[in-house]
Amino acid sequence: MEEFDLFHISCNDYPLDKALPLPGVTFYYLNATERGLAWVDDFLDSHKPAHAPFRRRTFFSFGKIQHCLPFLNQINCNNGTHKIYRVNMTNPVKAPMVLTDCLRKKGISNTSNEQIANEYWNPQHAWKYWEYLSEEMIIVEDITTYALGLPRNGMGHYWDDQNLRKELFNC
Asked: Which parts of the chain are beta strand (E)?
C-alpha cells in the first residue's frame, strides 16, 4: 500500500493518527444532490476504474497546501472554523479537479461527457490542480495556523487547468 502526504480542508476537528470512518456519502455529494448536480459524481462513478473509490463516498485531498486555501471561502463551516490537515491517504487516485466543472457546464446529456470522464480517471494531459481520492485517510497533523500564513496563490494552477480544459473540451 502506497501512502502520500497530502492536504485536506475541513470544518471538522479530527483526531490525529487514526483512520477516519468512511462517510456514507460526502458532504459535497449531499450539497450537489440538493442543487440537482449529483449527476456529475454519479456519471463519473459509472465510468470509474475498478481500483478507484466512488466520488460520492470518498475522502478528498490536495497535493499542495496552497490548493486548499481557495476553499476557505467556498466551504461554509457552521462553527466558523476551517481546519487544514496534513494527511496520509492509502492508494489515492489522482484526478484533474477542473473536469468536474466541465461536466456541469456541458450538461447531463452532452456527447463529450464520456471523453471528459475518461480523462478524469485516466489523465493523459499536463494538469496542475489535482484532487486525490481515497477510501482511507489518516490525519497526521493540524497545519491550520501554518497554512493560513501562506500566500493564497494556488488558483494560478486552477486557471492554467481551465485553459487546458477549454482547449481540450471547449468548456
From this structure: 3-10, 59-62, 83-90, 93-96, 130-134, 137-142
